[in-house]
């Protein structure tokens, strides 16, 4: 792929704040958070390279002492484009971070400049007073100067706490959550058709760190075949590093995320699979752990059945599709690759790929339909949310449910089916859908519509059957444009 793609919205947001700094001659701070390898550092570097103003970029190192961190800060500051004379930067800061920030303030120009502190949570880990020192330096030294301060971090929970109500930097920074590249951006970067674009997005999770090793125009399965000859390929290394960083020891959290990644979705199934010799994980332990993984770590997503009645059970899935694929297939594939078995590794992937893809694509399609709904691009004007529905027996399961709100709707606007296989959606599939919607609370024949999303289109005999919306891969990808 090209060196830098997409992120036009994020670059515009940063440019807007730099313009504000220029107009007011006062400082603005932005806290940028997002998971590892999502491209935070690359985005900010691209912004600095195209901004036309001097900047200072400091990346913290995990595990070093505060003294070492301050020394590295001053050394980087001296080499940056900020000071008019490098000799103006002091060599030592016996007063720690307060002196370091004072040295930074002393070399800031009277014209706009950018200061970046990357891996900020590591600085907070090293020195428990760092957040307070940063707040004091911002209030007394930096905010009165024309500087754009960008604070970056991978630990989403710690970055959220930086600007939380009870923390020193509360109210002092705008918050920008950097999500993975959108499907349309992935397609543009790799020059792929819509169907292959969706596959590429599922494989990479939209992470630039993986996409950089993907040659333009290369089909997804050919990409995997190529990577199976490389034990150090990012498609294996990035999810493995994420797993080790988030869950460094094989504790209960690690067992739970691996149980979900292996295909267990219900509370009971996760408890049984993640349990040990003593039996299943107790509900009193598992429930708060699942909440932490969803709300703090953002590693898992929780799906609720959508209808006009409250329903159970909730289903859990790994939120990032690349990590989800790693746990379900790529880890086993990687083991074979490391043993020098690329052919067998690729064959293992292809055996698992189709069935995994059929379920993994569902959240992406629901998101696409929801984007189209809020944009007014669906036949049902009252549709605002899109989910799925199932009962306790998972019989039936309905892939798509459109409604006016979630998780308990006032009105079901449509229901539908996803068929992401090599064969078209046919009369048999339609009959199954019609039978299933009879059980969906709130579905009203004649008022609630029917929708079909199919990789291979629909059979010829489905004309005039009451299906109001038929989408293929192109419509799914276009929802992000």
Explain the overall architecture.
The longest helix is centred in the C-terminal third of the chain and has 33 residues, at 342-374. The chain has helices spanning 8-24, 40-51, 66-79, 97-107, 120-126, 130-142, 156-162, 183-190, 194-204, 208-211, 220-227, 234-246, 252-261, 267-274, 283-295, 321-338, 342-374, 427-437, 473-478; strands at residues 28-33, 55-59, 113-118, 147-153, 174-177, 300-303, 315-318, 385-390, 397-403, 412-419, 449-454, 469-471. It folds into three domains: 8-177, Rossmann fold; 244-340, Arc Repressor Mutant, subunit A (Orthogonal Bundle), CATH 1.10.10; 361-478, 3-Layer(aba) Sandwich (Trna Endonuclease, Chain: A, domain 1), CATH 3.40.1350. It has 481 residues and is an alpha/beta fold. A five-stranded parallel sheet has the order 2-3-4-1-5, with helices on both faces. The protein has a five-stranded mixed sheet with strand order 8-9-10-11-12, sandwiched between helices. Strands 6-7 form a two-stranded antiparallel sheet. It contains 19 helices and twelve strands.
Write the layout of secondary structure elements.
Elements: H1 8-24, E1 28-33, H2 40-51, E2 55-59, H3 66-79, H4 97-107, E3 113-118, H5 120-126, H6 130-142, E4 147-153, H7 156-162, E5 174-177, H8 183-190, H9 194-204, H10 208-211, H11 220-227, H12 234-246, H13 252-261, H14 267-274, H15 283-295, E6 300-303, E7 315-318, H16 321-338, H17 342-374, E8 385-390, E9 397-403, E10 412-419, H18 427-437, E11 449-454, E12 469-471, H19 473-478
Parallel strand pairs: 1-4, 1-5, 2-3, 3-4, 10-11, 11-12
Antiparallel strand pairs: 6-7, 8-9, 9-10
Helix pairs in contact: 1-2, 3-4, 4-6, 8-9, 12-16, 13-14, 16-17
């Amino acid at each position: 792929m090209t060196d830098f793609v997409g992120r036009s919205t994020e670059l515009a947001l940063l440019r807007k704040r730099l313009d504000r700094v220029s107009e007011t001659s006062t400082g603005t701070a932005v806290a940028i958070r997002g998971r590892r390898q999502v491209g935070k550092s690359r985005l900010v570097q691209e912004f600095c390279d195209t901004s036309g103003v001097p900047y200072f970029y400091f990346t913290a190192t995990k595990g070093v002492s505060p003294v070492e961190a301050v020394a590295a800060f001053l050394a980087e500051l001296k080499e940056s484009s900020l000071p008019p004379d490098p000799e103006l930067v002091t060599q030592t800061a016996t007063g720690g971070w307060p002196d370091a920030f004072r040295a930074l303030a002393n070399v800031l120009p009277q014209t706009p400049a950018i200061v970046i502190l990357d891996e900020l949570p590591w600085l907070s880990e090293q020195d428990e007073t760092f957040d307070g020192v940063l707040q004091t330096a911002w209030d007394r030294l930096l905010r009165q100067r024309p500087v754009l301060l960008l604070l970056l971090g991978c630990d989403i929970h710690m970055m959220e706490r930086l600007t939380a109500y009870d923390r020193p930097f509360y109210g002092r920074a705008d918050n920008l959550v950097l999500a993975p590249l959108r499907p349309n951006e992935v397609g543009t970067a790799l020059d792929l058709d819509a169907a292959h674009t969706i596959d590429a997005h599922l494989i990479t999770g939209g992470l630039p760190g993986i996409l950089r090793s993907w040659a333009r125009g290369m089909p997804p399965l050919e990409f995997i075949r190529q990577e199976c000859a490389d034990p150090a390929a990012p498609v294996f290394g990035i999810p493995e590093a994420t797993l080790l960083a988030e869950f460094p020891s094989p504790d209960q959290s690690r067992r739970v995320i691996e149980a979900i990644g292996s295909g267990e979705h219900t509370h009971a199934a996760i408890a049984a699979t993640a349990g040990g010799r003593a039996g299943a994980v107790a509900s009193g332990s598992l429930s708060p752990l699942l909440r932490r993984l969803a709300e703090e770590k953002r590693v898992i997503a929780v799906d609720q059945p959508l209808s006009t009645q409250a329903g159970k059970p909730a289903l859990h899935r790994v939120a990032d599709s690349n990590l989800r694929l790693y746990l379900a297939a790529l880890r086993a594939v990687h083991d074979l690759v490391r043993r020098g078995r690329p052919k067998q590794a690729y064959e293992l992937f292809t055996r698992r790929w189709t069935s995994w893809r059929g379920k993994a694509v569902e959240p992406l399609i629901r998101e696409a339909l929801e984007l189209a709904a809020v944009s007014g691009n669906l036949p049902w004007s009252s549709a605002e949310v899109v989910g799925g529905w199932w009962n306790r027996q998972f019989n039936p399961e309905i892939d798509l449910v459109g409604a006016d709100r979630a998780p308990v709707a006032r009105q079901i606007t449509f229901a539908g089916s996803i068929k992401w296989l090599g064969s078209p959606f046919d009369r048999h599939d339609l009959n199954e859908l019609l039978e299933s919607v009879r059980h969906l609370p709130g579905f009203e024949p004649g008022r609630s519509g029917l929708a079909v999303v199919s990789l291979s289109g629909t059979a010829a005999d489905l004309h005039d059957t009451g299906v109001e919306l038929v989408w293929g891969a192109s419509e799914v990808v276009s929802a992000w444009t």
